[in-house]
């Protein structure tokens, strides 16, 4: 047919938007679960089509480039696999009475709204629209964290809302300061907020305003990334919310704020008179790694344990991007992808474990490889991967981060390695008891699909052994764009 064209950048927005409206109108949980999977698959296929269909030119509001396509494809893939896991997990919670149809009425509509917000943040060419999209994704996950309506869940959601609001307010103020710096050069109006316009004119902006703006942006979006000491909302949100949302928080939502931070880092780096953003990011990254590594030893809840592991790994990623340069940026991109795939797989396993054993307390979970071999060994592979052991993908990305840092700043590399080793000890200590200890708790067979978990772990294993040449070239190109 002539005159009809398919715009994948718009499709990753209108598919979840239309799906959210449809799912909100349907009352049956099982039907909406299937439709949620179908919508997530369609969005993922639309994102993949960006590789084969000509990208639309940058507009006033939407942009698809080599940087955000990494995030879009990863986001839609994990969103799709999590929707599969979510269908079985939430269905079990409904059958056991932990959740009621009233609480689940808008669950899948909120899931698609969350995906809409995250996708919109990635494809936004307007820094104001990007801020709005991050806020939409945040508010939606706040509602989903509190879905159990227990005192602890509502407290966690409230803490998430308050701290997230403080962070997003800082990010808004930083965005306004960027607009103020751009206005004398670009002029008033929407153009002063269009990223492709800003990045070409940044050298003419007032560097003092940019400096103050980046501090607020780092604090604001750093809260969303989960960097210490701005992390307090994250462990509670993981522990008290439904596990599919834990997988989304660690695997996706943290990346949304990271992406926003990287966009502004590129802007600041283009201004010769502005401060270097790298040292600030390196400092916060190292603090997060070391702090989270020690906190891992004090966790008694398995979901809180892996929440602090997310703080550690986001610290490593922010550290790598703060160091900058082609190799460190490449390592940061690879680590981000590997962490998203691995941590979401771990939460898939943890969700099944908590349902089988009826608890999230680590002390009450023992001998999984004996009672539930597939689930237990899946968790073993996931923890071995997230701990950074070869031949899995995170070992490769951590090796690149450490080696590139040793070549430039050996003292920083020593601190980084110290934090990684401390975290490694905590994770292996917990894994030994949970997976190989004397069996404890329910031995009932698991009625669940492990396909999403093993699909993620297979990709992480393949990436640790072999990365295809085109993928390496693509990541190298994006690493150069990041400076």
Explained architecture:
- The structure is a single chain.
- The chain has 483 residues and is mainly alpha-helical.
- It is built from 19 helices and no strands.
- The chain has helices spanning 8-25, 29-48, 68-96, 107-123, 127-145, 151-186, 195-201, 207-225, 233-240, 243-269, 277-295, 302-323, 326-357, 368-371, 373-386, 393-408, 410-436, 451-465, 469-481.
- Helix 16 runs antiparallel to helix 17 (410-436).
- The longest helix is centred in the middle third of the chain and has 36 residues, at 151-186.
- The protein is globular.
Strand tally is 0
The radius of gyration computed from the alpha-carbon positions, rounded to a whole number of angstroms, is: 21 Å
Which residue ranges are poorly predicted, with pLDDT under 50 across at least 5 consecutive positions? none
Total helical elements: 19
Question: Termini, distance in Å?
Answer: 43 Å
Largest sheet: none
Overall 3D form: globular
* Strand residue content: under 5%
- What is the structural class? mainly alpha
Tell me the helix content.
over 70%
How are helices and strands ordered from N to C? HHHHHHHHHHHHHHHHHHH
Mean pLDDT, to the nearest integer, reads: 89
Summarize the structure.
This protein has 483 residues and is mainly alpha-helical. Helix content is 75%, strand content 0%.
Fold blueprint:
Blueprint: H1 8-25, H2 29-48, H3 68-96, H4 107-123, H5 127-145, H6 151-186, H7 195-201, H8 207-225, H9 233-240, H10 243-269, H11 277-295, H12 302-323, H13 326-357, H14 368-371, H15 373-386, H16 393-408, H17 410-436, H18 451-465, H19 469-481
């Amino acid at each position: 047919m002539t005159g009809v064209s398919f715009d994948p950048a718009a499709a990753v927005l209108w598919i979840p938007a239309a799906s959210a409206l449809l799912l909100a109108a349907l009352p049956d949980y099982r039907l909406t679960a299937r439709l949620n999977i179908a919508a997530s698959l369609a969005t993922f296929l639309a994102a993949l089509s960006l590789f084969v269909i000509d990208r639309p030119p940058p507009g006033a509001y939407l942009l698809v480039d080599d940087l955000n396509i990494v995030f879009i494809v990863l986001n839609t893939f994990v969103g799709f696999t999590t929707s599969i896991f979510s269908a079985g997990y939430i269905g079990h919670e409904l059958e056991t009475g932990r959740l009621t149809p009233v609480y689940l009425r808008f669950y899948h509509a909120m899931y698609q709204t969350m995906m809409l917000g995250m996708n919109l943040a990635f494809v936004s060419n307007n820094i104001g629209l990007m801020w709005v999209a991050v806020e939409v994704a945040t508010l939606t996950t706040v509602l989903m964290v509190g879905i159990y309506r227990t005192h602890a869940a509502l407290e966690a959601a409230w803490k998430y809302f308050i701290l997230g609001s403080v962070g997003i307010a800082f990010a808004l103020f930083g965005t306004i300061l960027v607009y103020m710096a751009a206005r004398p050069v670009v002029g008033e109006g929407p153009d002063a907020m269009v990223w492709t316009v800003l990045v070409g004119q940044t050298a003419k902006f007032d560097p003092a305003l940019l400096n103050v703006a980046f501090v607020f942006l780092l604090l604001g979006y750093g809260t969303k990334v989960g960097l210490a000491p701005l992390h307090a909302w994250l462990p509670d949100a993981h522990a008290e919310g439904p596990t599919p949302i834990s997988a989304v928080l660690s695997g996706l939502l943290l990346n949304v704020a990271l992406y926003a931070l990287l966009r502004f880092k590129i802007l600041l780096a283009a201004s010769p008179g502005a401060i270097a953003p790298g040292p600030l990011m390196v400092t916060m990254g190292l603090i997060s790694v070391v702090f989270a590594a020690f906190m891992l030893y004090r966790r008694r809840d398995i979901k809180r344990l892996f929440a602090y592991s997310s703080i550690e790994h986001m610290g490593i990623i922010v550290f790598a991007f703060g160091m900058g340069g082609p190799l460190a940026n490449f390592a940061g991109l690879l680590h981000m992808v590997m962490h998203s795939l691995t941590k979401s797989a771990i939460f898939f396993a943890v969700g099944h474990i908590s349902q089988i054993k009826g608890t999230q307390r680590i002390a009450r979970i023992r001998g999984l490889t004996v009672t539930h071999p597939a689930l237990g060994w899946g968790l073993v592979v996931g923890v071995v991967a997230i701990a950074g052991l070869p031949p899995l993908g995170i070992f490769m990305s951590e090796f690149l981060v450490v080696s590139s840092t040793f070549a430039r700043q050996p003292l920083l590399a020593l601190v980084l390695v110290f934090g990684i080793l401390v975290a490694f000890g905590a994770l292996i200590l917990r894994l030994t008891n949970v997976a190989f200890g004397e069996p404890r708790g329910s031995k009932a067979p698991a009625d669940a699909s492990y396909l999403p978990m093993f699909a993620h772990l297979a990709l992480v294993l393949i990436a640790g052994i072999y990365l295809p040449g085109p993928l390496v070239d693509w990541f190298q190109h994006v690493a150069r764009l990041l400076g």
